[in-house]
Amino acid sequence: MEADTKQILEEALSRRTIAVISHPDAGKSTLSEALLLHSDAITEAGAVHGKAGRRGTVSDWMDMEKARGISVSSAVLQFKVGEAVVNLVDTPGHADFSEDTFRVLAAVDAVIMLIDAAKGMEAQTMKLFEVCRARSLPVITVINKWDRPGQTALELVDEILTRTGMRSMPRNWPVGDSGHMLGLLHPDAMSMNRYVRAPGGAKKVLAEPLSAEIAETEYPVEWQTAVEESSLLEVDGSFYDRDAFLSQEATPLFFASAVQNIGVEELLRFLMEEGPHPQDRPDEEGSPHPITSDFSGYVFKVQTGMDKAHRDRIAFMRICSGVFERGMVATHAQSEKPFPTKYSQQVFGRDRTTVDTAWPGDVVGLVNASSLRPGDTLYAGQRVMFPPFKPFAPEHFRVGKTGDASKHKQFRKGIEQLDREGVIQVFFSERRGQQRPVLGAVGPMQFEVVSARMESDFGASVSFEPLEYSVARDIDEQAAEILRERQDCEVLYRSDGTPVALFRDPWRLRTVQRDHPHLLPDPPGSRTSGSATARM
Ligand code: G4P
Questions:
Q1: What is the torsional sign of CA 471, 475, 480, 482?
Q2: Which option is the CATH number for 396-535: 3.40.50.2300, 3.90.320.10, 3.30.70.3280, 3.30.2350.10?
Q3: Residues with beta carbon inside 6 Å of ligand 1?
Q4: Angle CA 320–322–326, to nearest 5
């Protein structure tokens, strides 16, 4: 099939590729289900996502995930809303996997940020806002759980402003306090929706539109309060400015109760009408690579163990330009080797379907793509390479080793593989030897994943020896030579050959910096200690 420029543009314009992100327990899975429910992709909430007890817990690919009730892996769900196609990319909820989240967010054009009405901005919420800023991603904010007592609407708006610098543009506003929700006011129309719960709770709630006059008559105090409060957020006679949303100066704000499906329909409508569509993506040199050029795609996630029976490994790729057609021979930009695309799939819950054609914004799973790693580019025709991921600075270090001498080969192979997938960072030094690599993680739970994967996929158990380092810095060879002589840091090599200096704490780093300021300049925008965006 020869896709012309017009068709590629039309398909791209109809795509919305997004992620729902939040601090754990704010309602990410519940909202994802609710979005699907409203799109009619599923007919009963709980069929796709969900935790233990709910049907079809597809996010729980690994036993560890099941045990902890967290989602380590990322799934991609595609569904249609009218003529539009939504690609909903799932992200790991736990802070220990924030590097993974950062990579996944390279695949989306906007995010829905959920905030629990009672808890406000939590630790992971702040980290995620930072990641979105670093990625220049427009953020739609949803205050969830409005059916339960929580903070006031204005307190939450104020908190968002003071902690992120973003003002809120209300797309709806609660009538009634949290825990006493009567309905939602729509600032543009100055009308209200009252909700009637359907029996059983799992079906869509029914919205009953009320004019301002009726709302005022029925709820004189609450309606007046909602009108007054929301109008405090009016700027130049308007509640909404699309440019401010796209440039992240402001965030469209929704109040919702995901569990009751309240506020979800308007959120979906906003996404369709105002959500950004896929655009030209900057290449390695920073020049925009036109969306209408030949096929190109960006690998953002490699996932193993999604299907225990097959022990397969799927590389998830976002289409950046052109049209992807199954069977086409693409080129892997990093190796310049041909890459066959015969086994391309879409993963929807437990179901997998073969993908024959995909357009910019879509996500395709490439099965058994063992040569691909997160950050890689595939292209056909005109050569392009997108910038690779810069690794996060790990903050936890352990020596990994296997107790069973007969398993050294499996151990080496396994560690190499997990490094390639981005599960863990691997460092070596002559002093420590190849059998005792140093493993670096952003969050300690990554070590549990390593342990589980080494055992189940490679048959090699691994034990860890903690190291008391918490700060890592990329250095050059000249610095490596000098720092190797010091007692207060250790020089290792990352698996890609980059020398890295490890320090026990930020104070040690500062001491060494004072002695050798030219060897260890602070990287722009980084902090010495942990931060979601601290890169090496
Ligand atoms: P997560 O993916 O962000 O971790 O959160 P998840 O959707 O699993 O929701 C966490 C808990 O919050 C769940 O309760 C869920 O039912 C509840 N929840 C989500 N949205 C709302 C809401 O709008 N209002 C209220 N009141 N609760 C909400 P749980 O007890 O942990 O699980 P479950 O047994 O209810 O599934």
A1: negative
A2: 3.30.70.3280
A3: 22, 24-30, 51, 93, 144-145, 147-148, 257-259
A4: 95
Nearest-CA residue for ligand 1 atom 15 is 27
CA of 532 to the centre of ligand 1 (A): 25
Q: In this model, does residue 477 exceed pLDDT 70?
A: yes
pLDDT, tens digit, for every residue of 481-509? 999 999 999 999 999 899 999 999 999 99
Q: CATH 3.90.550.10: does it fit domain 282-379?
A: no
Question: 390-415: buried (b, 16+ CB within 10 Å) or exposed (e) per residue?
Answer: ebbbbbbbbbbbbeeeebeebbbebb
Please give the distance, rounded to the nearest whole angstrom, from the Cα atom of residue 231 to the centre of ligand 1: 31
Give pTM, 2 decimals. Answer: 0.84
* Mutational pocket test of ligand 1: of 20, 29, 30, the residue with most ligand atoms within 8 Å of the beta carbon: 30
CATH of domain 20-75+109-276: 3.40.50.300
Atom 18 in ligand 1: residue holding the nearest Cα: 27
Domain locations in the chain as residue ranges: 20-75+109-276, 282-379, 396-535
pLDDT digits (tens, 9 = 90+) for 507-531: 999 999 999 888 887 765 454 434 4
Q: Are 137 and 35 in contact (CB under 8 A)?
A: no
